[in-house]
Write a structure and sequence with these properties.
8 strands; 14 helices; alpha/beta; binds 3-methyl-2-oxobutanoic acid; 12% strand
Length: 306
C-alpha cells in the first residue's frame, strides 16, 4: 500500500532536531528564537509542522488547561503526564519541561531527581525553573547531572504571593539592578537561556546585550533574542484574563462556542447524523437478517447453528 505524505511531513524529513547548541548559535547569528507552550499531542504536532524552535510544557498548564487559580497546585505527575503527550507529537523542536512549585526549592537532591524525571519519563530535552541567585546552586547541580536548564526572571508566577500579584517587575532601580545581576549569575551557573517575563523593554534589551546566552521574552519588548507566549492566550481559548502583553492571533473560544452549539442544535433537531455520517448494511445482508428474525427465537437458533 502506498502512503501519501503531506508536503509538511516530506519537508520535516529534511529537518534536524533543535538542540541547545543551535539555540545558542541562533543568538550569535541574530536569528530570533520562537517558543510557545503546549500541553498535548495534537498541539505539539502542529507546532512541529510549522517549525517552532522551542516548545515549553509550561506550568501555565495549571491555569489554562487544568483550571487552577494559579500555577502553585501543579504537581510533578501532572507535568510529566502532559510532557509525555507533547513529546509524542513533537520530534524536531527543543522540548523544555517547566519544573512546578516545590519540585526544586526544597533540596538540591530533590531538584536533580525531579529534573531527571522530565528527561527520563517526560521525554523532554531540558527543564526550566524560576528564580535568581537563590537558585544558582540548584542550577549548577542539575546542569552537572547533564540536564540543560532554562532560567526565568522578572515576573515569576510561582512567587505570585511574594510579588503581590501578577504585576510587571524591574520598573525601579533596585529591582532592575538585582535582575541584571541575577541574569549574570544564572548564566554563570550554567543556564543555556533565560526567560524574561513582564519587565520593561529597555531593561530586557540591556540584559540581552550583556549576556552570551539567549533571552526569551514574554512581555519584555522586542529586543530579546526570542519570544514566547502561552498558546491558550494566543489562540484566544483562555478567556479568564489576558495579560496586556498578549497578542491574540485567533479567537478559538468563539469558534468552539459556534461549533458546540451547532452540534447541540443539530442533535436536538435530529439533523445530525445525516446519511453521509452513517454506515449501512448492504441489502443482501439486511434481507438475511430480516429472514432470521422472522424465524423466531434468534438466540436459540443462532446457538443451534454453532
Ligand atoms: O508556564 C509558562 O507557560 C511559562 C511561560 C509564561 C514562559 O513559564
Amino acid at each position: 500500500m502506498s502512503v501519501v505524505q503531506s508536503p509538511i511531513s516530506i519537508a520535516s524529513e529534511e529537518r534536524k532536531k533543535v538542540t541547545i547548541h543551535l539555540i545558542q548559535a541562533m543568538k550569535t547569528r541574530h536569528e530570533v528564537i520562537s517558543m510557545l507552550t503546549a500541553y498535548d499531542y495534537p498541539t505539539a504536532l502542529v507546532m512541529d509542522q510549522v517549525g517552532l524552535d522551542i516548545i515549553l510544557v509550561g506550568d501555565s498548564l495549571g491555569m489554562v488547561v487544568l483550571g487552577y487559580d494559579s500555577t502553585l497546585p501543579v504537581t510533578m505527575d501532572e507535568m510529566i503526564h502532559h510532557c509525555k503527550a507533547v513529546a509524542r507529537g513533537a520530534k524536531y523542536a527543543l522540548l523544555v519541561g517547566d519544573m512546578p512549585f516545590l519540585s526544586y526549592q526544597v533540596s538540591t537532591v530533590e531538584a536533580v531527581r525531579n529534573a531527571g524525571r522530565f528527561l527520563q519519563e517526560g521525554g523532554m530535552n531540558a527543564v526550566k525553573l524560576e528564580g535568581g541567585r537563590e537558585r544558582a546552586e540548584t542550577i549548577r547541580a542539575i546542569v552537572s547531572a547533564g540536564i540543560p536548564v532554562m532560567g526565568h526572571l522578572g515576573l515569576t508566577p510561582q512567587s505570585v504571593h511574594k510579588l503581590g500579584g501578577y504585576r510587571p517587575q524591574g520598573r525601579d532601580v533596585a529591582v532592575a539592578y538585582r535582575l541584571v545581576e541575577d541574569a549574570q549569575i544564572l548564566q554563570e551557573a550554567g543556564c543555556f537561556s533565560l526567560v524574561l517575563e513582564s519587565i520593561p523593554g529597555r531593561l530586557a534589551e540591556l540584559v540581552s546585550q550583556r549576556l552570551d546566552i539567549p533571552t526569551i521574552g514574554i512581555g519584555a519588548g522586542a529586543s530579546c533574542d526570542g519570544q514566547v507566549l502561552v498558546t491558550h492566550d494566543l489562540l484566544g481559548i483562555f478567556e479568564r484574563f489576558t495579560p496586556k502583553f498578549v497578542k491574540r492571533y485567533a479567537n478559538l473560544a468563539e469558534e468552539m462556542r459556534k461549533a458546540f452549539s451547532g452540534f447541540k442544535t443539530e442533535v436536538k433537531e435530529n439533523t445530525f447524523p445525516g446519511v453521509e455520517h452513517t454506515v449501512e448494511m448492504n441489502e443482501d445482508e439486511w434481507q438475511k437478517l430480516e429472514e432470521r428474525l422472522a424465524q423466531g427465537s434468534f438466540i436459540a437458533q443462532d446457538q443451534a447453528l454453532r
